[in-house]
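agent> fetching stored inputs for the zinc ion docking request
agent> found them:
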Amino acid sequence: MTLTELHDRAAQLSGSLVRDRRQLHQHPELSGQETGTARYIYDRLLSLGLEPRLLLDDRSVVADIGDALGGGHPLLLRADIDALPIFERGEQRPYRSLVDGVMHACGHDAHVAVALGVAELLVQLRGQLAGMVRLAFQPAEETAGGAGRMIEAGVLHGPEIEGALGLHIWSGVAAGTVGVRSGAIFASADEFAILITGRGGHGALPHQALDPVPIASMVVLALQTLISRETSPFQSAVVTIGKIEGGQAFNVIPETVSLVGTVRAFTREDRDRLLRRVGEVASGIAGTFGATATMERRAGCPPVISDPAMAELVRSAVLASPGVDLVEPEPLTVGDDMALFLESVPGCYFLLGGGNQQAGITAPHHHPEFDLDEGCLPVGVEVMTRAALEFCRNGAAGTTVAE
Ligand SMILES: [Zn+2]
Ligand SMILES: [Zn+2]
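agent> prediction call returned; pasting tokens
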């Protein structure tokens, strides 16, 4: 098969890619409720002659293409499918969300459309597929719960999956461009909550109370020194307190103040250290004043780290795709539970450019005006299909890594 043949086949799918994307965009479902989306994917895969399976209470779909026993290198392609609690703006869009307050504002509708397009091409090219490709449609990415549950459900086994690929549409990168980076591309993302407990009292008699408000204030400021004084100047990390709650009235000292925040880091070591130190700093400061602080870790996931050989595989696929530009993006401090797949098997998560300055498609992800240039959809299909065919044939070993 020539380079342009696969390019042409991907381009011929443009119409159905847009239809899939718009259908999903109009019917978004929140994390944990993706049964309609999963049913749509299931039916589409069935119509391609595949034998999809529903998992996780019918919110996830898995389908295998190619012969699991025929040798080659089994590969997992992951696409996340959930939407966000955002009220979509843009009355003029014919494909605007039909569900008030729910919107595909992260572009996961495009992830599904691209994965369905890859499925269609791989079915067409089955004779050239040297191994098995498992398509994994994952719910609950935005709440960081879906990837772990899919792994627990066994999607990386039977046969043993050797590599994983996924893409995230990115509005900050122009359509027609693909961003590949070896190493960390997305940060870890963890939520934590701190409860500082003092002793309430009259606002005019602070000496008879133990005021948690100034203690909480000191904790907020001290936490920033975990970045400025304890993290290497050559490493990036973030600690943000996004929510403070405490007190009811101007003249009452409250009993407790709660702080809720997030830690972002690009190495597992920084992530673990920062989360540990947040708790230590809070209880150390509280203890100095005779109060207590307890810290609770909530949902989170590790940094998204692409394997160098797998990143090289995707780079080669981009360079083989006519008219597609390759860039190396800076790491992003957002998170994605694709991280868990990449912790289990070598893989690459890359950015599919979806922005278009001239057309005014510039809104960031998770914004009520978020949109994408649908011209990027066949680009995603082409690059992903090329990478999948190559991986199934040679694994990641066939690529030369220039690091
Ligand atoms: Zn998102
Ligand atoms: Zn996303």
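agent> quick read of the result: The two ends are 30 Å apart (CA to CA).
agent> awaiting further instructions
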